[in-house]
Amino acid sequence: MSVENSVITTGEYIKHHLTHIQTGNGFWTFYLDTLFVSIFIGVFALSFFYFISRRFSLEAPSGFQNFIELIFDFVDGQVRDTYHGKSKLIAPLALTIFVWVFLMNLMDLVPVDFFNVFGKLIGSHFLQDMKLVPTTDPNLTLAMSISVFCLIIIYNFTSKGLKGVLIEVFFKPFGPFLFVVNFFLKLIEELAKPVSLGLRLYGNLYAGELIFILISLLPWFIQWVLGGPWAIFHILIITIQAFVFMVLTIVYLSLAEEAH
Q1: What is the pLDDT of residue 7?
Q2: Distance CA 160, CA 260 (A)
Q3: Are strands 30-31 and 22-23 parallel, antiparallel or unpaired?
Q4: The pTM is what?
Q5: Which terminus of the chain is more exposed, N or C, with fewer CB under 10 A?
Q6: Which one from 47, 53, 124, 196 is the annotated catalytic residue?
Q7: H or E segment and range at residue 259
Q8: 204 catalytic per annotation
């Protein structure tokens, strides 16, 4: 059983693992663990890709190089099949989203109390209280989806112009006489994209983390029986969620460039 369980109640244990390290007040409240882990993972991924690229070889590719090329080909295939515009930003953006979201999701497979115990050993209160999975924070997932939403708006205006956007917003699908209805339908359609994109990722990862926490409350000999199969199944979940976030981003940006 987890170390914490001997000194605090079950409710306090669950609350501890679901509470972020915060600073600031109101709107300007920052979740330090979310920022630290997400930035660290981003820097790690960029450094790893840079390290592999500096040792790129056509004659004798390493296993890591083959793995990176496999990811590149997979993402590039999704972009070619889904995106029908001419922007050169989409493929790098899709690759960044897939790798970054997957690695942040992957932190859910770290044992629940690992950093808590490690933090106690080295005397770090930050590590003891840190939440490891950034994508269980709706602030991060919604911030990412809002960034995609901003790109959707930019792509709409760059591909259709102001006139084309106004026609699509006020004249479609019911014509100019029902422009108010057209506007509200378009508003709901567009706002639903970032909300669903961010909440889908958050909900799936939050539920997965909660299940791991509940399993960690059980006796140690039962934890492995339940935790092992769930961890294996969760690998599929974290991969699918990264894939879905990437594909929907490509689809939304492709729709933004298409005239209806």
Answers
A1: 58
A2: 10
A3: antiparallel
A4: 0.89
A5: C
A6: 196
A7: none
A8: yes
Q: What is the pLDDT of residue 260?
A: 55
CB neighbour list of residue 206: distance below 8 Å, 6 or more residues apart: 136
Output the pLDDT for position 64.
83
Query: Could you confirm whether 196 is annotated as catalytic?
Result: yes
Strands (E) in the chain, as ranges, are 22-23, 30-31
Are 110 and 132 spatial neighbours (Cβ–Cβ below 8 Å)?
yes
Alpha carbon distance 249, 83 (integer Å): 10
Q: Cα torsion at 66, 70, 76, 82 (round to 10°)?
A: 180
> Does the annotation mark 5 as catalytic?
no
Spans of the chain below 70 pLDDT: 1-7, 259-260
CA distance 257 to 84: 8
Preceding omega of 134 cis (within 30 degrees of 0): no
Structure tokens at 53: 């690229």
Burial degree of 219 (CB within 10 A; 0-12, 13-18, 19+)? exposed
User: Of residues 2, 38, 182, 204, which has the active-site annotation?
Assistant: 204
- CB-CB contact of 50 with 108 (8 Å): no
127, 116 contact by CB (below 8 A): yes
Q: 108: buried, middle or exposed (CB in 10 Å: 19+, 13-18, 0-12)? A: buried
- Give the pLDDT score at 140: 95
The active-site residue, picked from 87, 139, 147, 200, is: 200
Whether 104 contacts 36, CB under 8 Å: no
